[in-house]
Amino acid sequence: MRVTIHDVARAAGVSVASASRALSGRRKVTPDVAERVNRAATDLGYQPNAVAKALRDQTTGTIGMVVPGIGNPFFTTMVEALERRLQENGRDLLLCSSQYDPLIEARRLETLLSRRVDGLIISPCDIEASAPAVLSAAGRAPLVQVDRYIEAGGTDWVGLDDDAALAQAVEHVAAGGARTVAFIGSRLMNSSARLRLSGFQLAVDRAGLETVAPLLGEFTHEWGMQAGRLLLGGDRMPDAVVCGNDEIAIGLLRALRLGGVRVPQEVAVVGIDDVGHAAMCDPPLTTVAQPVDEMATEAVRVLEQVRLGERRPVQRIAIAPRLVVRETSRRTEE
């Protein structure tokens, strides 16, 4: 038989109202009552009725999240960091993937809204096509964008300072002796792709480096290999290659190895993200680490501000990255 709040109150020797106040934490009770009620609830194995609590408090204790693809190790890392932060605040995460499709993304947002989540965290898959669904959802529930964002304004965003990330990558290879630098990234369908290409162009202009036309495809290992084959078939190999993410960089490293090019002796390679296997590839990848834990903390903080309806301007929080030098680039002391 299911244990009820009446059973807990009886075991603790208090009224049902006192037991309810002690367990909900919404109104204060004396320390003695709180201790007796919580001990009775534990001893009896009492489980609160989540549905009733949600109806009473107008909250479900859940946050919905939509990412472009769970297979991308960066998004996996971000999801884990956000889930930890939400758990610290007593909330659970409901995760969906848009599969890089704005139509699927819109359906996932509707699904989460129908579950009456307390808020939404999204990394939109398309800077323009995602806008209608994201703005509609933001009008119905607290919403924060993470990593990627839509071109239309009106919602908060937390992510990487891409200009700083590309500046660190380009300055590092320049200090290592590179004079010609290539960029391999993604087609300009999302904000990360656009910002990383523009950040690269700004950085090479400041450094006075020579560059070639960027190679743009997908943020994938497969595209990195394909782009590497294109470089191998060109007239001249650049001194260094900066990649839009680690997946591209790791694919590029494999293509260069198969093509007989030594890294970093002949070509330096730098990625972005610092996903788990960046340190385990051969040679270990120099990369610009995304501050994932800090991004997760800020996203949860901003979401709570939106949820509480605090009056303030829309926030765009770009967090500084950190260069991690491994073995695919030349160290400046060499």
UniProtKB/TrEMBL annotation:
Organism: Nonomuraea marmarensis
PANTHER family per UniProt: LACI-RELATED TRANSCRIPTIONAL REPRESSOR, TRANSCRIPTIONAL REGULATORY PROTEIN
PROSITE patterns reported for this sequence: HTH_LACI_1 (PS00356), HTH_LACI_2 (PS50932)
Domain named HTH lacI-type: residues: 3-57
Keyword tags: DNA-binding, Transcription, Transcription regulation
Alphabetized Pfam families for the sequence: LacI, Peripla_BP_3
Lineage top rank: taxon: Bacteria
Keyword match Protein biosynthesis: no
UniProt-recorded name of the protein: LacI family DNA-binding transcriptional regulator
Record GO terms (molecular function): DNA binding
